[in-house]
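User: Sequence for Chromatin accessibility complex protein 1 below. Tokens please.
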Amino acid sequence: RKLLPAIYVNSSFDYCGLIFQELFVQYLATYSYKHGRGKEKNALTYSDLSHTAEECETFQFLADILPKKILASKYLKMLEKEKRDGEVGEDDEEDEEEEDEDEAVDEDVGS
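Assistant: Structure tokens for Chromatin accessibility complex protein 1:
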């Protein structure tokens, strides 16, 4: 038997990887086009791709890479709301900690 040179094997694997990538992108685009608004507009849009990534379980891993587009003003409002909710949540945690300390003191006094 003759062994194939390592360069030939590596380039062969690289070629297969490129083919798989191309097939994956083609499948994603076709699926997004068929299940999105692509047929209506006769075009594939970013929103079709992001919708597919969000809704289809097969493409769920792409949700972080293809997020839905939002306006900057909406994003800033979301950040403000999260900040306010975070502060309220921190206050609640502090109250719970104080209650736990009070209960521990009451138990020590009762002993």
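Residues 4 and 11 are 11 Å apart (CA to CA).
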